[in-house]
Specification:
about 210 residues; five-stranded parallel beta sheet; two-stranded antiparallel sheet; 2 domains; alpha/beta; globular
C-alpha cells in the first residue's frame, strides 16, 4: 500500500458475496435456454448492458425477459431469478471499509442496476442497519446511475477527474480481469481478486 492514497472497490465478488451460477440456474428453471451465454461473469446478452447503463428500467427488463420465454411468466419469478445472484455482506468486510476510511479516500465502482441496488440495499439494512453503501465511501459510482460501465475506460476516468485523483496513487480492486486490465492501462495500481480470494482473508488481513 506504499504510495496509495485512494482505493476504488468493486462491489460484487469483492465486498458483497455473489454467485452467477444461481441466476443462471434460476433463468434455466423458468425457461431461458443457453443460460451461460445469456448471462455469465464473462459474457451476457445486450439486454443486461442496457439495464446496467440505465437505458432500460425494471419494467422494460421484465417485459424483455418474458419475450424470451416459451410461456408467460409473472414478473416476481423473473425478478427472483435475477436477484438469485446476491448472497450476503460479510460483516468483517464492512468493518474493514470503515477502518480504511480513516486512512484513504475510498470509492465504490460497480456494474449494477436498479433492481439489484434495491435488493442489496435491503440486505445491507438487515445486515448492519445502514440503508445504502454510501456510508462506507467518499463517493459511489453505480453504472446504471452514471450511464457507463466497466471495462469502459470512461468510467475510470470519470472517477479520477471528478475527485482529482492521481492514477499512480490509486488502487483498484476487482474480481473481473477485463476490468483490471483497463484500470492498469490508465495507470492505476490494481489487485485482481481471483477465484477463492477474499478481501478480508487475502488483502486486508488482521495483524496477528
Amino acid at each position: 500500500m506504499q504510495g496509495i492514497k485512494n482505493i476504488i472497490f468493486d462491489l460484487g465478488g469483492v465486498i458483497l458475496n455473489i454467485d452467477y451460477r444461481l441466476t443462471q440456474k434460476a433463468f434455466e428453471d423458468i425457461g431461458i435456454t443457453q443460460e451461460n451465454s445469456f448471462y455469465s461473469k464473462k459474457e451476457q446478452d445486450d439486454l443486461f448492458d442496457k439495464l446496467e447503463t440505465g437505458k432500460i428500467g425494471q419494467e422494460e427488463f421484465v417485459v424483455a425477459i418474458q419475450q424470451k420465454l416459451p410461456q408467460q411468466t409473472d414478473s416476481k419469478k423473473i425478478l427472483d431469478a435475477w436477484n438469485a445472484i446476491i448472497l450476503d455482506f460479510p460483516l468483517r468486510r464492512l468493518q474493514i471499509l470503515q477502518q480504511l476510511q480513516l486512512h484513504y479516500n475510498t470509492f465504490l465502482l460497480s456494474n449494477t442496476n436498479e433492481i439489484h441496488e434495491q435488493t442489496f440495499n435491503k440486505l445491507l439494512q438487515t445486515t448492519c442497519g445502514f440503508p445504502t453503501m454510501a456510508v462506507f465511501f467518499d463517493r459511489i459510482y453505480l453504472s446504471h446511475r452514471v450511464g457507463l460501465r466497466k471495462p469502459d475506460p470512461a468510467i475510470f476516468q470519470l472517477i479520477l477527474d471528478e475527485n482529482n485523483l492521481k492514477p499512480e496513487e490509486t488502487l483498484f480492486i476487482d474480481d473481473s480481469l477485463q476490468h483490471i486490465e483497463t484500470a492498469a492501462k490508465l495507470g492505476l495500481q490494481t489487485i485482481h481478486m481471483k477465484d477463492g480470494m477474499t478481501m478480508d482473508g487475502d488483502i486486508f488481513k488482521a495483524k496477528v
